[in-house]
Amino acid sequence: MNIEALAIPEVFLITPRVFGDARGFFMESWNRRAFADAGLDLDFVQDNHSRSQQGVLRGLHYQIRQPQGKLVRVVSGAVFDVAVDLRRSSPYFGQWVGATLSAENQQMLWVPPGFAHGFYVLSESADFLYKTTEFYVPEAERCVLWNDPDIAVDWPLLAGNPPLLAGKDAAGLALSACETFP
């Protein structure tokens, strides 16, 4: 497996070893020992699966209490995946990194606690899987506005059309108004 730090060094793009032939392929999407050997000693408590249609944007979500680290991947389709640093003590506070994750490239993204996370569906639909280091706490969930100009995520919106948003995502707060981490 190849683990590459992105422009925010705590966010990693992970490319697993894939063994394939005419019958299909095999890959390890999670191996505690291999991840720990690479410096990611993680303990996951919950697995989630979402399916979204093309043009859906989910995020930018985080939990102010029990912040979740997320290991995310796509098993059908393609998304543009984003992590935003919400740690005030970080030199990267308010900055974002993104990567295209797809069933084809089989890459994963590690989004550590203290980051907001979101994705935009590029394909006709996408099945998105993620493991979390903390349980979901609805009352602790927060949302940064997906198009906050202070963060300026360069979303690859298809044909320039506005994304399809849930009500909570459309009502996200500007970074300047959000609860953040120390």
Evaluate the radius of gyration.
Answer: 16 Å
CATH architecture: Sandwich
Counted beta strands: 13
The span between the termini is 32 Å
Whole-number mean pLDDT: 96
- Structural class computed from helices and strand pairing: mainly beta
Helix content: under 10%
Low-confidence stretches: none
Beta-strand share of residues: 35-45%
Number of helices: 2
Q: What gross morphology would you assign?
A: globular
Strand order of the largest sheet: 1-2-10-7-12-5
CATH class: Mainly Beta
Q: What is CATH's topology name? A: Jelly Rolls
- Quaternary form: single chain
At a glance:
By secondary structure, the chain is mainly beta.
Q: Can you offer a commentary on this structure?
A:
This protein has 2 helices and 13 strands; from the N terminus they run E-E-E-E-H-E-E-E-E-E-E-E-E-E-H. With 182 residues, the protein is mostly beta strands. It has a single domain, classed as Jelly Rolls (Sandwich). A 6-stranded antiparallel β-sheet has the order 1-2-10-7-12-5, with no helix packed on it. The chain has a 5-stranded antiparallel β-sheet with strand order 9-8-11-6-13, with no helix packed on it. A two-stranded antiparallel sheet has the order 3-4. The chain is globular, with a radius of gyration of 16 Å. The model has no long low-confidence stretch (mean pLDDT 96).
